[in-house]
Amino acid sequence: MSRTRWHWLLALIAALSLSGCGYNDFQRLDEQVKASWSEVLNQYQRRADLIPNIVATVKGEAGFEQDTLTKVIEARSRATSINATPELVNNPEAFEKFQKAQGELTGALSRLMVVAEQYPTLKANQAFQDLRVQLEGTENRITVARNRYIKTVADYNVLARSFPTNLTAMIFSYSPKPNFTVQNEAQISVPPTVSFDKAASK
Hints:
By secondary structure, the protein is an all-alpha fold. Helix content is 75%, strand content 0%. The N and C termini lie far apart (90 Å).
């Protein structure tokens, strides 16, 4: 057998071995994780972009709780200060910091919406109602994007931890990726809502 044919045979054997050990699956799932993470970031950014308009509208309400507004502004600042690069999904500590900041922002926004319900003029403000609807829609999109990410990372991590694909993971440094915690998922999966049917006076 010629040297060229021998090289081609070795390449074919290597390719078949890699395929059988999950190498191609790692490539596919890694790309899916990146894509689903990008969508999560897009939706979080969409929410962050809505907040200045929400704050500006609420600020126009005389006597609105300043502490509630301040907490939303500070939470948004912390969440947007984190450089959420694609590499963040491979750094458990950075990922935990990111999800904590986003969870705090979710809580602050929920509180703001509950407080806003006590102001009849805000409830009658069309601009505020439009922003509320946009926020709820965005929170729903965040939940969908996060669920998609959670599923994709779970598939990837099962591959990284199972035999014999865990050997491929060790050779090519495919470490398990961090995921959203159950506690954080429960907190964020319920979008802030305001019932404008229940009139409340200040």
